[in-house]
Description:
The complex is a heterotrimer. Chain A is α+β, with helices and mostly antiparallel strands. Helix content of chain A is 35%, strand content 14%. Chain A is built from five helices and five strands. Chain A has a five-stranded mixed beta sheet, with helices on both faces. In chain A, helix 2 crosses helix 5. Chain A starts with 5 loop residues before the first strand and ends with a helix. Chain B has helices at residues 16-28, 42-47, 83-88, 90-95, 97-105, 109-112, 117-123, 130-136, 154-157, 233-239, 246-259, 270-288; strands at 9-12, 33-36, 55-58, 68-70, 74-78, 140-145, 148-153, 158-160, 163-164, 171-178, 185-192, 200-211, 214-223, 230-231. In chain B, the strands form four sheets. A five-stranded antiparallel beta sheet of chain B has the order 4-5-10-6-7. Chain B has a four-stranded antiparallel beta sheet with strand order 11-12-13-14, with helices on both faces. Chain B has a three-stranded parallel beta sheet with strand order 1-3-2. In chain B, strand 6 and strand 7 form a beta hairpin. The longest helix of chain B has 19 residues, at 270-288. In chain C, 28% of the residues lie in helices and 24% in strands. In chain C, a hairpin with a 5-residue loop joins strand 17 (450-455) and strand 18. The interface between A and C is large, with 51 and 57 residues.
Amino acid sequence: MAETPIALTVNGTAQTVAVPGMKRLLDVLREDLALTGTKEGCGEGECGACSVLLDGRLVNSCLVPVKQAEGADIRTIESTNLGAMQQAFAETGAAQCGICTPGMILAAHALLADRPHPTREQIREGLAGNICRCTGYQKIFDAVELASRRNG
Amino acid sequence: MRAHLADFELTVATDLTAALTLLANGSANGESWHPMAGGTDLMVLFNAGRLPYRKLVSISKLGELGGISVSPDSVSIGAGVTYSTIQRDPILQAEFPLLCQAASWTGSPANQNRGTIGGNIVNASPAADTPPALLVYDAEVELTSLRGSRRISYDQFHTGYKAMQMRPDELLTKVHLPRRDHALKQYARKVGTRKAQAISKVCFNAAAQIDSSIVRSIRIGLGSVAPVPLRCHKVEAVLTGQPLTVALIAHAREVIAQEIKPIDDIRSTSQYRSLVTQNLLGEFLGSLL
Amino acid sequence: MSHRLIGTAVLRKEVAGKVTGKADYVDDLHLPGMWHGITVRSTIPRGDIRKITFQDGVPWSEFAVVTAKDIPGKNVVSLIVEDQPYLASETVNHMHEPILLLAHPDKYMLEKARSLVKIDYEPLATIYDIDEALRANKVIKHYLMEKGDVDAVWAQAAHIFEGEYSTGAQEQLYIEPNGMIATFDRQEGVTVRGSMQCPYYIQKALMPLFDLPAGKIRVIQQETGGAFGGKEEYPSMIAGHAALLAWKSGHPVKIIYDREEDMAATTKRHPSRTRHKTAIAEDGTLLAMDIEFVIDGGAYATLSAVVLSRGTIHAAGPYRCPNVRVRSTAVFTNSPPHGAFRGFGAPQSIFALERQMDKIARGLNMEPAVFRERNFLQTGDSTATGQVIEQPLNLAALQDRALSHACYFMKKAQFRQSNKTATVKKGIGFATFFHGAGFTGSGERYLQSVAKLRATPDGQVQILCSMTEMGQGTNTVLTQVAAETLNIPYEWVTILRPDTALVPNSGPTVASRTTMIIGKLVENAANCLKEKLALRSGCSAEEFAEACAVHGPLEITVQYKEPGAIYWDDQKYRGDAYGAYAWAVYVAEVSVDTLTGETCVDHFTALQEVGRVLHPVLAAGQIEGGVLQGIGFALYEKVKFRDGAMINNQMTNYIVPTSMDAPPISVLFEEIPYEHGALGAKGIGELPMDGPAPAILNAIEDALNVSFQHVPLMPEEILERCVA
C-alpha cells in the first residue's frame, strides 16, 4: 500500500513524510527527520521523555500517530526558542544523565508559557508527567524558577 | 515498539457523517474500523503490540465532537473535548468541580492535552477518573449513528466489565450534565499508587445536599471497586431523607462494604479497597455533620 | 589551602549536548547498512529445551538467526564464576533467559518474528524462596565475619533483642533502556557502542565469546542515560548478543530493549532477609551483634558474591561493638539474576541494622539518638572487621547537627500531641550509617587502574581513563581536579570518551570509586605533568602554556598504588575493608494517613561527612537523587513476581516517585579532607541509598507506634495493621 505523504511543520520548517499513518510521531521525528533529541523511555506515555509541543500543547509523541499530526506545528528540543530554559537547566545542575532533559525542558517551557510565574507547587504539578531518575527533581524545580525570574 | 506497522491503517474522517459511514459499512462487510480520538489508551496498546484493531479512523479533529455548550438546563460537553479543556472551562469549574478535579487527576499534563472525555468513557476501564464524577452529576451520554442519536443515562451505560450499551456503528458524541440550582457539598478523593500519573486504587466522588442535618439528597460515584464505575444506589437510599448521625454513618459504612465488588489485582487488594472506601465515606459524611 | 575551581559549580562538561538534545545516546546512532536485533527468551522459569520451530508469517530467509550452536568461542558471560551462558543451549534456568537472536533490516518486523518462534520445553522443578534455596544448599557464596566471641556474652547480657527484616527487589529504572550497536569485521574484529558503565568489563566478556584477543574487541561508551549499577554487568550480555548478530549477518546490528523487556529480563537489586540478635549491657552499650544476612542472587552467580561482601561488611554499622558475627549467604533461585544497584548490598543490611537499633532503643525506653550516641564508633575504635578508625570521626556531632537542622526533638514532641486527635499522623525518624568507598580490601590494588594525561603544545590537556559519565558528573569532576592541580582554566581540560582502543583501563565505574580513587590518579598525573614540565608549584596558566609550547606534546601515565598499607584478609574477612568511609545521618519526616495507609515524606534532611566537596551542585545532586531512589525503595517500588520474574514490568505499574511525590530535601555536608582521595574527596555516589528506607520506617513507627520490618512498605500493609 503506497503511503500518501503527510505534511507537518517541525521547528518552523515544512516537512513531508511518506510513511504509514500509524507510525508514531516520535519515530518520524527520530528516524525520518533525523531529529534524535526527542527520546523514548517507556513507550507508554508515562515517562515524558518523548514530550514535544503539538500546536503549542505538550504531548507525548510516543502516543501520537503521525497522521493525527498532519498539518500541525511541532516543536522539539531542537527548536531554537528554548534557549532560556536550556541555559537555566545548565546553570542549576538540572541535567545529570540528560535522557529526561529534552522532554523536561519542553514540559517546563510549556508550563511557563501557560503560567509565567508558577509557585513551586505548580511547578511540581506541571512536571508531574516527566519522570527523572537521577536528580530527585530539586534542581529541576530550581531551573524553572530561575527561568521564570529571568522572564521578568 | 512492538506493533507490526505494515498491518495497520489509519484514516482521518473529514466529518462526523464520514466517520459514522465507515463504522456502519465496516460492520456490514466484515472489515471493521475502530475510532481513535486522542490515542492515549489505544496507542499504549499499539506500542505494546496488543492493539486488537487493525483499521483505525481518527476522529480527533471532528468539529462536531468538540465544544462545551451551555443551556439553562444543562451543559453539554463534546465527546472530543480534552481533559485540559475541561479543567479550564469556567462553567465546569463553577458547577461541576468534581469533573474538573477528575480531569486534572487523569494521567499527566501531556496526556490531558490529548485524552478526551469520550475516550475515557468508552475505554470503559473501571479505574477511570471521570466516570465517578459523571455518575454523581447524573450525566447522560449521547450516542450517534447514521440512524440518528439516542441518549442514555450514564448510570445505565456500562453493563459489565468493558461492556457498554453501544452498538458497533455508534459513536459517543456528547456528554450532558443537568444543571442544579441548589447548593451541594462535594467531595472527591482519588487514592492511587502515588500523587500523580497514577491509576486509582479507589476513586471516590460524592455530592450531597444537607438541610438542618437531614440528607436531602446524596449521590456517590466510585471507581476501581467494581467491574464498572459504580453509582452507590443502596448507600444513597439508606442515607436519603435521614438525619445524619454518627450511628447512621457507621451503618452506611457497612452498606457500602456490601455494595462494592473490589478485587485483588496488580495494584492493590480487595480488602484495602473495601477499607478505604468505607473510610472515605466516613470522611465525607463526617464532614457534613 | 585556597581553591580556585574546587568547591565551585562549574558547568557540567557535556551539558550543552544534554540540554539541546544533541548528546549521542546509542539509539540516536545509525550506521550504514545497519540491521536491528531482538532476543528470543524463555517463557518458562526452568526446563529443558525440546524443540524450536520457526512458524510461518515472516520471510525467515531474510533474517539472521543465532543460537548457542553458532557461537564461535565460549558460550559463557565471563564475570566471576563461569556459569551464565550468552544463549541457553539445553536448559533454561529463569524466565526470560535468552535462547536465540534474530536480526533484520526492518525493525518493525522484529516483534512479529519473535512471536512466531515457538519453543517447546520439558519443565523442571523451580525454587523461588530463600529458605527453600538454603535447604537445598543452592549457595552462591557464604561469608563468616567475626570479631570477638558473640556466644560467650549472651549469658552476661542485661537485654537481648531479636528482629527479622527484609527488603524487596528494586528496578534501577534508568530512563534510557539498555542498548548496543555492534559491528564485526574480519580484520578489525568486534566494535561495540552502547550504554554502559564498564567498557573493559565488556571487552573482557567478549574476548572468549569470539576467541579474539583484546586488540580485536573495541568497546566505546555512548552517552549513557542513567545506570545506577544496572549497566555494570548486564551490558556484556546485550553487547555479546549484538556482536553475535553482527558477526552472523555481516551487518552492523543495533539492539535496543523496550521498557517491558528491560524491566523483566535485566538485573534488579538483590532481595534480602536479615536476622539480628543483639546483646545489650546494663549501661545501654552494645555487647554482641549476631547477624544472619541472606540475599537472593537469581539463577546465575554474576556479581552476587561481591554484593554479599559489601552487605556483610556494612551489616554491623558505624557502632562500637566488641563481639560481632555476620554469617551471610547468597543463594541461587530461578529468577533472572539479580545484580548491581547503587549501594550494592549495603542498603539491604543497613536497613535491617537501623531498624534493629530503633527496636533496641524502644525496648530500653531510650531516645534512639541517645542510644546511638552511646555506641558510635570514635577515632581510635575498631570496626566489625577490626579496622581502626584513624581519621577524625565525631558521629555524635553529626547526629546533633542533623537532628537540630530537622528540628527533630521539637517535632517529635509536637507530633506526639497532635497525633492524639489527627487522622493523618506525623512522625520523625532517622538513621545513622556509613558507606565505604572504592573496592573492598585489596580490590583497588588488584585492579591496578591506569590513567593518562596528554598535554598539547598550546597548553590543552586531555584526560584518558575508562571512567564513564552516566550523569553523576565524572567528566566534570575529573577535569576540575586536573585543572585545579595544574592551575589552568577548566576550559583547557577535556576528557576523552571511553573507548578501549584509546583509553587505558582505570577499572569499572562502580563502588563510588571514581572521584576518590581515579580522581587521585588524575591529580597525581597532573603533578607528574608539572614536574615533567619543570614547573614550580603555584605557577600560572601562562607559564604552563609556555612550558607546553617549549616541551611539545607530552603524555603521562600513572598507575594506582595503594596509599600506605591496607591490610585485608580475604579469608577471614578481617582488616581494613575500605580506604575511607563517608558517614551520614538522615532524617525523615512523614505523614501517614490512617484512612488510606498512604505515607508521604514531608521533609528529608541528609547530612554527610564526605571528605571534600569538589563540586557543590554535583555533590548535592547525587544526594538528592539517591535520597529519592531510597524513598522509592521504601514506599513505592514493589516488584511483583510470578514464576520468579517481574510481572509489573511497565512504568504504569512499577511506581517511581514523580515530581509531586518528591519532598523538599535538605542536603548538608561536612568536610574532613581525606588525604588519599582526590584533593581530599571521598566517594559519595552510593551513600544516599543507604539511609532513607530505615529513616522512613523509623519515622512511620514514631507516627503510628506500629513497627514494620520490611520494604517496600505499601499502604495496604499499613492500613491492615492500623485496623487490627
